[in-house]
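Progress against Task 2.4 (sequence-to-structure conversion) is shown through the following example record, which the project officer requested during the mid-term review.
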Amino acid sequence: MRLPIWMAALAACAPLAFLAPLAAHAAPDSQDAAAGAAVFNAHCKGCHEPAIERAPTRETLATYPAATIVDALTNGVMKPMAVGLSDADKQAVAAYLTAAAPPVQTAARPGRAPTAPVGVDVKCETNPAIKPTGSDWTSVGLDTSHRYQPNPGLKAADLPRLKVKWAFAMPGSSMPTVIGDWLYITNRSGKFYALDANSGCVRWVVEGVASRTTPMIVKSDVSPSGWLTVIGERNRTARAFDAQTGKELWRSPQLDANPVAGITGTPVISGDQVFVPTTSGEEGAARQPTYRCCSFQASLAALDLKTGKLNWQTKVITEPLHDTHRNAAGTMMQGPAGGAIWSAPTVDAKRGLVYVATGDSYTEVATKGDDAIVAMDISTGKIRWSNQVTEQDNFIVGCNAPTKPINCPHPDGPDYDFGASPILFHLASGKDVVLSGQKSGVVYGMDPDTGRSLWSTRVGSGSSLGGIEWGMAADGKRLYVANADTVNVLEENLKVLGRTNLGSPIGPAKPGLSAIDPATGRILWSTPAPKAPCHYAGDRRRDRGGGACVRAQSQAPSVIPGVVFDGTMDGWLRAYDAATGKVIWADSTTDRTYDTVNQVKGQPGGSLDGLGAAIAGGKVFVMSGFNGAANTGGNGTNVLLAYSVDGK
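Structure tokens generated for the chain above:
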């Protein structure tokens, strides 16, 4: 799955979409660019020019800071692709890719500046004690993954008056969480921020945090202030901090030894445990003929909230790893592998269960652990039930390209990961149902006691790039599902590039938002993604009105009473009437630039993707720009936007 997702979307042979935090490398001099061309042509061009699936194009790579590219090759998921490259090679290819990038003005460095803004952290004058309200958004799903804010501090009648109150530029990011007037967010720069939710000034910042997970905030006596937050890092560890001061409280052991493993799903705190899922970039690493595909097997770990020590850890693939055969290059293959858990787990305290949704298989070795919803015992980690909805979904990046990597499994599958967290929904009948959405474009309802499928409903054709990607949302009446189908939108470009159609034989692409009856799976309404004009202000590649107006609706929705918020890849944020699906408010986050709180001048917006908006205290907080999965505009960075009524 090309998600993240902070692994978000695996990019292809050189998956630079999964970037490490900025390192302290000096930007390479442009005189190295000629040598870098040879490195690029030999190691990267096959995946980035033209780009395979969601691998960043060469044009997009040109918007990254050179130091980010070097660090991705040295420390990130690109590391397996960079075997044999010297430090000078890495510097040279970064110089080659960024040599033609246009300068961006920042208050900190006028004139020639990095292609992605650096910014200046403006500290708050005071940091009052954290005071919770009835309008907080303290985790990625707010409760059991519903993404429903019952007390938003604004109503449907206020929507026409929503304006951007403040903006904060940062490279990539998590979804923010908010408690009182404190906002928490991680990002690809390696900085973990606590901001003032009212102004965007910096309350504290922790450097060197390699995370893109959403910080969950809980009241806990483990922390001196009484408030604790936990994040997951790409290096396979979880870390706990005092939410008031940013002081580290503990750091978990490394949860997977595989160098391409990581954490993209938000760690979830329940009771005295922290549940941490693992994922990997092995789908991209496996493109190399010398790579011993594949060994990663996803797991869920339960940590002690007080100490970070491991209580239990359970793999979703229960079949043993073993050698299988040699590929055409003579490399010994292995399996089964895969089942990445891209999203946050969902806790069912009543049943003593925790549910996870898994991704595809990387090999042809049979397993029941991929493309499944898995229920584990909270106390022991024992698997109570597992429901696999797609068998033999065996896939590595590039298997749907005209020339397949030699490590492609046989048969290869459609790449139909689950990327969205399961939702535990309480029905009017008194029964519960586990709701899940897949990249196939199919939504499932399952019995939480047995895992038995109760119903399934198709909302889109699904594809390697489409279907349900980042999440769903639910209030007390309806399930809201965003569908990212992109085939029709991209078909012309695919033909020009001589690439295969990435679609599904099921039917035409139907990006948009749907509402479903959680009891029966019946579609209540469906609203296609509007064909609105898009304009990328401040993006010099696209500010003449060109560029891709991709209407894919991959962002997870967020709900308040009577209103559903969701965005599309072309940068439009919209509000829908929850009962009818009618669009009642819309704003393009890309038709203007932003002078940000952290002193970046003219910061452009970009795609709306990922985990969607956090709504708290009368404000709507959303990220616009490249989040690590896919991008149509911007300058390789993100801007956090805070909307409020009249911008006040």
